[in-house]
Amino acid sequence: MTTHTEIPTLNSLEYLPYLDKNGLIAEDLQGKIGVYSIFDQEKNLKFVGYSRDIYSSLKQHLIRQPNYCYWLKVQTITRPSRTILEEIKNNWIAENGDLGVNNEKNQAAWTQPIDAKPGMTAEEKETYNKSDELTQTKLLKQVARRVEAEIIETLKNRGNQMEIRFNPKLKGQGLLDLK
Question: What is the number of other CB atoms lying within 10 angstroms of the CB of residue 71?
């Protein structure tokens, strides 16, 4: 836990595995407020964020960027304070020379629902462009389900044992996000 005066450097914190030996995110992070950094397999910084429920945020990041979620560093705080959370986040990013972790494109890939539309085949795009709204919705659901299956398979190969349930209402828009 931290207070406003004691902000640890990112380098001073220990690496934690993103998924433990049981294929789970550490459950003691459920409901915890804090700042976290995510690293790839080679421990290169990929993202810095903060949350009112670190566990839920980490689960979302895992489905959005499964190939980059291997290691974590976490600092929890006792009371929600956007000022403190922003300060820690900004200090960690500055400490590591940004590396693009704070640019809009990178942020969107980690924080916004997955857009399955880029996964459309040329044939699907052609059908989509020639179809009515109902047929387009059905096609987007089909594409979203295919992308969903790919994500679940990737996570399974990583040893994930958590239940992953996507919001079915978003699939008709070609989007994937956890329920």
Answer: 20
Residue that is written with structure tokens 């699939």 in the block:
171
Domains of the chain: 10-100 (3.40.1440), 114-176 (no CATH)
Mean pLDDT of the chain: 92
Q: Please identify which residue in the block is written with the tokens 């969107």.
A: 108
E strands in the chain: 16-17, 33-39, 45-51, 71-77, 114-115, 175-176
What does the pLDDT look like over 94-126, one tens digit per residue?
898 866 776 777 888 999 999 999 999 999 999
Q: How far apart are CA 19 and CA 63, in angstroms?
A: 12
DSSP string, 14-66: PPEESS-TTS---GGGTT-EEEEEEE-TT--EEEEEEESSHHHHHHHHHHH-T
d(CA 55, CA 128): 37
- Which residue, chain included where needed, has tokens 């640890």? 8
pTM metric for this prediction: 0.90
Please measure the distance between the N-terminal and C-terminal CA atoms of the chain and give it in whole angstroms.
Answer: 29
